[in-house]
Amino acid sequence: MPRTIDPAFISAQFPTLSQMTYLNNASTGIPPRWCIEAMQAYLDDRTHAIGDFEKTLKTFTRITKNLANLLGGSKEQYGFVGSTSMGLNSIAHAIEYPEGSNIVICDLEFPSNYIPWQNVSRLLGVELRVAETSDGAAPASRFQELVDENTRVVAVSHVQFGTGYRSDLEELAHIAHESDAILVADIIQSAGWADIDLKSWGVDFAAAQAAKWLVGPIGAGFVYVSNRIMDDLKPRFMGWWGVKDIADFTYFERESLPDARMFQIGSPAMVAYVGFLASLEVLLKLDASTREEAAMQNADYLRARLDELEIPYYDFGESHNSPIVSSAPDDVEEIQKRLAKEKIHCSVRNGRLRVSPHFYNTTHDIDRLAEHLG
Predict the structure, then answer these.
(1) Is residue 104 a contact partner of residue 121, using CB atoms and an 8 Å limit?
(2) 270-283 vs 53-71: helix crossing angle, rounded to 10
């Protein structure tokens, strides 16, 4: 753990880490104490009829400001959706597809980032081109081979959920923009640990939710929209949270908001977003570079221990590795059961052991895992 991370702060915010070895952040992160307390306080206020709509709107403004600080861009470029899947479906159906259009994805994606594009292909007759990958890697060259002047969307996960491969979003944005296509990124496996700047990288649209590396509650999702595409989008769904004059409940012709909030439809799960705000405030106590350094140090230490144990794993090199480490020990299902009995939390994905340490983990956690892998 880098010296700039105070162990006392970690133990105060994440007290349950002392009761287990938690290395499953690619599934769900551990919510910090501030998150739990904020959600409890919100529910307590509800039971006493405390709170008003103006306070609610201010909460969401604070969240967008924090997201901009965490991920780049401005607060107007962030809007709220229930999940990553909802965000990706929203953009998939807000784009115009001229005849002959195509969409480019790869075969490593989590269902959230291929089902919406399959659906667009079926409903609208858009060609779906799937880049074939090998050895868990999705290099930009595989996408470039399929992109042409008719490509409307290049959709990719910043970090692949199963293998941990980290894409170069800036390079992919360049490839997409050369053909006037839109780069759509699923950032659920990177937001929270990675040092991200969506604006400077040229990402056009991104979606995620809070429950993984952002250490927030399930149900607090968001989207990012670049200024490059903002004015060209035509959301297929509208609701009262995505229109001008949100506090005016009288009947009149409504217009979408001119920013990322256009994708907001109905009332968000307020208790989840109250918790998300608190989780963001915990994350922002640490510099982005510190969070990334800590998570990557843990993952690199794990790779070294796997080398000692002669357990094969995916290694994509410094620029494409992430804190998700996918390895192939013998009898992985039995190992998973044995680890669970010892309160060592990992996952099995696609027949491989997936270990995903965060900034709050330590080399002691990795050593305890290695002890039970040997």
Answers:
(1) no
(2) 40
Per DSSP, the residues of 269-326 read -HHHHHHHHHHHHHHTTS-HHHHHHHHHHHHHHHHHHHHHHT--B----TTT--S-EE
The amino acid sitting at 86 is M
Distance, in Å, from the CA atom of 174 to the CA atom of 169, rounded to the nearest integer, reads 9
pTM comes to: 0.96
List the structure tokens of 93: 């159906």
In this structure, are strands 127-131 and 102-106 parallel, antiparallel, or unpaired?
A: parallel
The predicted-structure confidence for 280-327, as pLDDT tens digits, reads as follows 999 999 999 999 999 999 999 999 999 999 999 999 999 999 999 999
d(CA 62, CA 4): 26
CA 214 vs CA 114, 123, 130, 217: distances in Å: 23, 34, 29, 9
In a 3-state reduction of DSSP, which class is residue 47?
A: helix
79-100 pLDDT, tens per residue?
999 999 999 999 999 999 999 9
Give whole-number Cα distances, 96 to 79, 101, 359, in Å: 21, 9, 40
**Cα 37 from Cα 141, distance rounded (Å):** 46
- Distance (Å, rounded) from C-alpha 280 to C-alpha 351? 33
Q: What tokens does 175 get?
A: 């490839």
Q: CB burial class (10 A; 0-12, 13-18, 19+) of residue 8?
A: exposed
Q: Is the dihedral of CA 273, 25, 343, 348 positive or negative?
A: positive
Q: Cα(307)–Cα(321) distance, rounded to whole angstroms?
A: 16
Find the helix or strand (DSSP H, E) in which 334 lies: helix 332-341
Q: How many CB atoms lie within 10 A of CB 259?
A: 18
DSSP 203: -
Set out the domains of the chain in order of their start, with CATH numbers.
7-25+287-371 (3.90.1150.10), 41-284 (3.40.640.10)
Going by C-alpha positions, the residue among 50, 79, 44 that lies closest to residue 63 is: 79
Query: For the CA atoms of 74, 258, 227, 82, what is the dihedral angle to 10 degrees?
Result: 70
